Amino acid sequence: MRPLLLCFWLLSLPGVAQAPAVAAPVQAAPQLQELAAFIGPFPSVESDAGKADLAVVLWEQRIRTEADIQRAKSEVKLELSAYSEAMGVHLEASRFPETANLFLQVAKHIKAQSDGLKLMFARPRPYVAALQVQPAIERETNPSYPSGHATRGLAIAMILAELRPERREALLAQGRQVGVNRVIGGVHYPTDIEAGQKLGARLAQAWLAEAGNRRLVEAVRQAEWTPKR
Questions:
Q1: Which of 59, 50, 43 is nearest to 7 (CA)?
Q2: Would you give the DSSP letter of residue 130?
Q3: How big is the CA angle at 137 (ends 116 and 149), to the nearest 5 degrees?
Q4: Shortest CA distance to 123 belongs to which of 141, 103, 143, 99?
Q5: DSSP classification of residue 142
Q6: Whole-angstrom distance, CA of residue 122 vs CA of residue 106
Q7: What is the pLDDT of residue 1?
Q8: In which residue ranges of the chain is pLDDT below 50?
Q9: Quick one: pLDDT at residue 140?
Q10: To pair with 86 at 20 to 30 A between CA atoms, which of 17, 78, 115, 165?
């Protein structure tokens, strides 16, 4: 795993061809408006931060390896098995059905929030805004900000850590890497990932704060992650 390289000297790259932006943002429900204020806006293309954002995408495009690409491809459809190494066991749905059901429930809940924010912000994907960007993984047709993979990646990791606390750091590292791999693949900006991870942490904390969800997590832990005596 590697973090994004924030190489600001890349701002000296030659001019970047710009493509038309996507449709204007849509109005959102009050809850989404609150979450939008929480993560804040993405940087404009013309700003220094926006140029740095694109520079990192182009830098990752230059240095990514075949192993990097394959890892990013394996997470285009984010599944429970992505957390196998971090959990220290191969996470097969047939072996851990309750954990698999928990994963699907959380992923659906989190995705609904990030999808709503994507429509609200309507940020073009890097390969739409800059023709030099050549994704190494499947192109997405929805907006870029915040990253849904980054949001779900970290949120799910935080909830899985409740099942196996001793693996918490490994799980959080994998949860963050899910987002990083989207930049490596060329389908997101670093600020998409930053916002997604910020959002994912908040949504996971809110989800875990609900008594019914806490009981669900404890039931799964007892059923599949507590050693039998």
A1: 59
A2: B
A3: 30
A4: 143
A5: S
A6: 24
A7: 56
A8: 5-27
A9: 93
A10: 115
Instruction: State yes or no: cis peptide before 25, omega within 30 of 0.
Output: no
How many CB atoms are closer than 10 A to CB 85?
14
Q: Which residues neighbour 79 within 8 Å (Cβ) at sequence distance 6 or greater?
A: none
Question: Looking up tokens 């309750």, which residue turns up?
Answer: 98
pLDDT in tens, 46-70: 999 999 999 999 999 999 999 999 9
Angle at 202 between CA 209 and CA 42, to 5 degrees: 165
* pLDDT (0 to 100) of residue 23: 41
Instruction: Check if the beta carbon of residue 154 is closer than 8 Å to that of residue 172.
Output: yes
Domains for the chain: give ranges and CATH numbers.
24-35+45-224 (1.20.144.10)
* Residue 162 CB neighbour total at 10 angstroms: 19
Asked if 86 contacts 177 with a C-beta cutoff of 8 angstroms, the reply is no
Give the separation between CA 43 and CA 194, rounded to whole angstroms. Answer: 12
Q: How confident is the model at residue 227, as a pLDDT?
A: 82
**Lookup: tokens for 115:** 């999808």
Rounded-to-integer distance, Cα 134 and Cα 105, Å: 33
Predicted pLDDT of residue 162: 97
Tokens 């409740």 — which residue? 162
CA angle 134–137–140, rounded 5-degree value? 85
| Local structure of 103: helix, strand or coil | helix
